[in-house]
Design a protein that fits this description.
The complex is a heterodimer of chains A (about 325) and B (about 240).
Chain A: E1 14-24, E2 27-38, E3 42-46, H1 53-61, E4 68-73, E5 76-78, E6 86-89, H2 101-111, H3 116-129, H4 145-156, E7 163-167, H5 175-192, E8 195-199, H6 203-209, E9 210-217, E10 220-226, H7 227-233, E11 236-242, H8 247-257, E12 261-264, E13 267-272, H9 275-288, E14 293-299, H10 303-311
Helix pairs in contact in A: 2-3, 4-5, 8-9
Chain B: H1 2-13, H2 16-33, H3 46-59, H4 62-75, H5 79-84, H6 89-118, H7 126-141, H8 143-150, H9 154-172, H10 193-205, H11 214-234, H12 237-240
Helix pairs in contact in B: 1-6, 2-3, 3-6, 3-9, 3-10, 4-6, 4-7, 4-8, 4-9, 6-7, 7-10, 7-11, 8-11, 9-10, 10-11
Classes of the chains: A alpha/beta (about 325), B mainly alpha (about 240).
């Protein structure tokens, strides 16, 4: 499926990225990216593997040099050295496994620049938020994946940074931990009115907590808008495959039922309002024409269907 | 820098390999080899030669530990988080290197102290000796960023370190006296930091004041600069943020 272009302006002040280019090795991984992340809500950053999410985070925070473009926070342009306080929970837990939970908090509270007086209350708050009070003396290497994720998030939130960046914070955790993490993230955005950038592959999570969504691929933004805007625009998608030799006959049959579709080497992508009903009609029509269809997938109108419409369904490396 | 320094000290204190490589191995070498190798060393008390030689040989594993200080953060995925915080990457690096250097120096002082108390080795001008050991520690750990820049795994760091430490120790006279090496290798001997460290220790234990050791300090300083120069080519912060 070819990506469709649909971009919108974002909400209130927050982080804005304009015409960002980042080169890694011999490749422009980010190619003129535009991105908004309004303050006071969770903003989703979605994209398949290799879309450029982690590189965008690196450029935003400043540890990856950008070749072109501007990044601003509110009305303030950010240079290569960030002038706002960031909190980052990277893809990996990014903690010291040889140290205890408490020592990890102590180390990162110091690195976060908290005064000695503020450190203690921030660390106690982080322990409470992550529900790890009873494990304060446990070595991080001995914690479960879910506990490490909770601690990683709590560490990122130390000192209430103005921009909280979360790179797949729920990867590999059980449903209970996922619910806890998502609630913590949502309440952080509400409490601090900070910018919270949430990268995830779980579309349901993004749909659940993100007020604003950016979908990127190939280092460019393909789609952006508030959750409500995206839902209002959402269309269903029906996808199936026929033998390439049957493609021309199948196209005629499908056109009579749903006129908005693309076909490539026998792969049909039909954009429609009710993909399940459309599937019945299409299957009947093709069966009547003695055409066999396979690899059928139907996405009801949702963020999922918008995502697949924008980024396609081909597997990524 | 203080946080990085203290954190690194904590991490080093939980690393048993440090005690094995920098304390147990030199003690083992001294204990097992000193009597047998006595005829090849120039001093009447063999320990006067073997304690400096083996202490210096293994002290250069400090480069591996300094490298690990950077690589470990990469392995744990910590660099992106560290680089997002309001602390400069240079102060984190300096803290890590200072911690490793301090530990290497402390261990060398401990081994020389034990040698003086237990095996009756002469310390000579203590100020000169401490200075030589301090500058040697700086030179040893200066290999850290270079190694972290080229390594893709802990195994690579260990293998390169072994080749560097043993190769340079052999050339520099820390395994057998450098005069006993073949003529063809003699021009290479003064290129090794171990040679200059041992020369400095010999002169310091003979009573030379610090100023007389200026050539030793300059030579070890030059090695340090070359090592950091190498790191300028191998070490990339963007690479540190990639997972391994």
């Amino acid at each position: 499926m070819e990506p469709r272009e649909l971009t919108r302006s974002g909400g209130g002040l927050g982080v804005q990225i304009r015409d960002l280019w980042v080169r890694r090795g011999q490749r422009d991984v980010i190619q003129g990216l535009e991105l908004e992340a309004p303050a006071g809500m969770v903003t989703g950053l979605l994209g398949p593997n290799g879309a450029g999410k982690s590189t965008t985070i690196g450029a935003l925070i400043g540890y990856l040099p950008r070749t072109q473009g501007t990044i601003s926070y509110g009305s303030e342009a950010l240079g290569d050295v960030a002038s706002v306080r960031f909190g980052l929970a990277p893809q990996e837990a990014s903690l010291y496994p040889a140290l205890s939970v408490w020592d990890n908090l102590k180390v990162y509270a110091a690195y976060a620049g908290l005064s000695r007086r503020d450190r203690r209350s921030a660390m106690d708050g982080a322990l409470a938020t992550s529900q790890l009070v009873e494990h304060r003396r446990t070595r991080v290497g001995a914690l479960s994946v879910g506990m490490r994720r909770r601690l990683s998030l709590a560490v990122a939130m130390l000192g209430d940074p103005e921009v909280l960046v979360l790179d797949e914070p729920t990867a590999g955790v059980d449903p209970q931990a996922r619910v806890h993490l998502l609630e913590s993230i949502e309440s952080y955005a509400e409490r601090t009115q900070a910018v919270v950038l949430f990268c995830s592959h779980y579309l349901a999570e993004v749909d659940q907590i993100c007020g604003f969504v950016n979908i990127i691929d190939g280092g460019r933004r393909l789609l952006a808008g508030t959750r409500e805007e995206l839902r209002a625009d959402a269309r269903g998608v029906l996808q199936f495959r026929v033998a390439p030799d049957d493609a021309a006959r199948a196209s005629e049959a499908v056109r009579r039922i749903e006129p908005e579709f693309t076909e490539q080497h026998g792969l049909f992508t039909v954009v429609c309002d009710e993909p399940t009903s459309a599937l019945g009609a299409v299957a009947a029509a093709l069966s009547g024409a003695d055409i066999h269809l396979s690899d059928v997938a139907a996405f009801e109108a949702s963020l999922d269907s918008m995502y697949f419409l924008a980024t396609g369904t081909a597997l990524r490396d | 820098m203080g946080t990085a320094f203290l954190t690194e000290l904590r991490l080093l204190s939980r690393n048993p390999q440090l005690v094995v490589s920098l304390v147990l191995l030199p003690v083992l070498f001294v204990g097992l080899l000193s009597e047998a190798a006595a005829p090849i060393w120039p001093t009447s008390n063999p320990y006067q030669s073997t304690i400096p030689a083996y202490t210096i040989m293994f002290a250069f594993y400090g480069g591996a530990f300094a490298s690990e200080a950077f690589f470990r953060e990469r392995m744990w995925g910590n660099w992106p988080r560290l680089l997002s915080l309001p602390v400069s990457r240079w102060s984190v690096s300096a803290g890590k290197l200072l911690a490793t250097t301090s530990v290497v120096l402390a261990i060398q002082l401990l081994l020389f102290g034990l040698g003086a108390v237990v095996l009756d080795i002469r310390l000579g001008n203590v100020a000169s000796l401490v200075l030589v050991l301090a500058v040697t520690s700086v030179a040893a750990t200066s290999l850290g960023p270079f190694l972290a820049g080229v390594a893709d795994s802990q195994l690579t760091i260990d293998q390169i370190s072994n080749v560097l430490v043993l190769g340079l120790a052999g050339l520099g006279g820390a395994i057998v006296p450098s005069e006993r090496l073949p003529d063809v290798l003699q021009p290479l001997v003064p290129l090794t930091p171990q040679y200059w460290a041992l020369k400095g220790i010999t002169e310091a234990t003979g009573g030379a004041p610090p100023l007389e050791l200026l050539p030793v300090f300059l030579a070890l300083g030059a090695f340090t600069l070359v090592a950091y120069g190498g790191a300028a080519f191998t070490f990339r912060w963007s690479r540190m943020t990639e997972s391994v």
